[in-house]
Amino acid sequence: MAPTVPLAVLALVALVAPGLGVAPGCDHPAHRWCRSQDIAAACQVQSRCPSLPRPAAAPVQLSLYYESLCPACREFLVLKLFPTWLLLPDEMLNITLVPYGNAQERNVSGKLDFQCQHGPEECLGNMMEACLMHEAKNFSTYFPVIFCLESGTSVTQNLEACLQIYAPEVDSGRIAACVQGDAGVALMHHNAQVTEALDPPHQYVPWITVNGKHTDELQAQAEASLLGLVCHLYE
Question: What number of other Cβ atoms are within 10 A of residue 153's Cβ?
C-alpha cells in the first residue's frame, strides 16, 4: 500500500510548485488562486475555492404600466414599489415606469390626441410624469418626485412642491415646456406604442411585468409581497 502523504506536505508542494495539477496557463502561486474569479478561472480551480466571491446577478427587471390617477396604480406605487426600491440595493432591482395605461391615442387632423380613463387631468398627470422622467433622466432623481405626486392630494398641482423637496436641481420650467410642446406628445406616443406592444396585451392597470413577462401569478405575487418576489428571483 502506498504511503499516506500528510496534508501539510501537500500544501507545501502546492506553494512551491503552483503549476502542479492546474492549467498550464496559470502563473499564480497557490495562495493566490482564490483571490479573484479571474485567477481561479485561469488556474481552473474554481471548485477548490468555496469562499470565492460570486459574480453579481443581473437585477430583476420590473416594469409598471399605470395611470396617474388610477387608485390601484397609486396604491401599488406608493405602498409597494417605492418602499421596496428604498429597501433594496440598486443592483437588485431595475424599474421602468410607463404612465399611459388604458388611455387611447387618436390622430385628429394630423395631430395626436389622447383620451384617458379618468379624464383630461389624468392625461395631464401622465404627460407631466413622462416629461419629468425625460428631464430628470436619473431614476433615483425622478422616482421620489413621482412618489410625492402620487401620494399627495393632487398629482397635477403639486409638482413644484415635490420638486423642491426631492429634486430641487430639476427645472420645473423645462417640464412645463415639455408638457405644453411637441416633446410631451412624442413621449406619450412612445408610451402608447410600448403599452400596445405588450404580449399578452394588458387587460387592466396596474399591469406589472417581471423580467419581461406577465402572468397572473407574477402579478399576484408582486401585489402581495413585492420585496419577497424580488428577493426570490434575484440569483
Answer: 6
Q: What digits encode the pLDDT tens for the residues 132-183?
A: 999 999 999 999 999 999 999 999 999 999 999 999 999 999 999 999 999 9
Q: What amino acid occupies position 10?
A: L
Whole-model pTM: value is 0.78
- The amino acid occupying position 41 is A
Angstrom distance (rounded) from CA 151 to CA 57: 32
- Report how many domains make up the chain: 1
Q: How far apart are CA 162 and CA 135, in angstroms?
A: 15
Is 12 within the bounds of a domain? Answer: no
Tell me the three cell numbers of residue 80: 409597494
Contact 94, 61 (CB under 8 A): yes
Residue 24 belongs to a domain: no
Q: Check: CB of residue 214 under 8 Å from CB of residue 200.
A: yes
Supply the CATH number for residue 202's domain.
3.40.30.10
Residue with cell 405644453: 180
pLDDT in tens, 3-31: 444 444 434 434 444 444 556 668 777 77
- Amino acid of residue 96: T
Domain that holds residue 143: 60-233
Q: Provide CB contacts within 8 A for 45, sequence distance 6+.
A: 22, 26, 33, 34
Phi, psi (deg, nearest 5) at residue 18: -60, -25
